[in-house]
Each structure stands twice: as C-alpha cells, then as structure tokens.
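Bit of a strange request maybe. I'm writing a small parser for structure token strings and I need a real example to test against, not something I typed by hand. Could someone generate the tokens for this chain?
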Amino acid sequence: GLNGILADEMGLGKTIQAMAFLAHLAE
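Reply from user aminoacidic:
Good idea to test on real output. This should exercise your parser:
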C-alpha cells in the first residue's frame, strides 16, 4: 500500500544519508 511505499522511501533516504556520512568519515 501507499504507507509501505512511503516507509520504503524514508528508509532508503536514511540509508543513503548513512552511507554518505560513512563515506565522508572514511575520506
């Protein structure tokens, strides 16, 4: 349903933010 899609997008956004943060720390 729509709620599942929104939850997936929010989770994906947080995952991307976390990966970008870790990549920044690794530099």
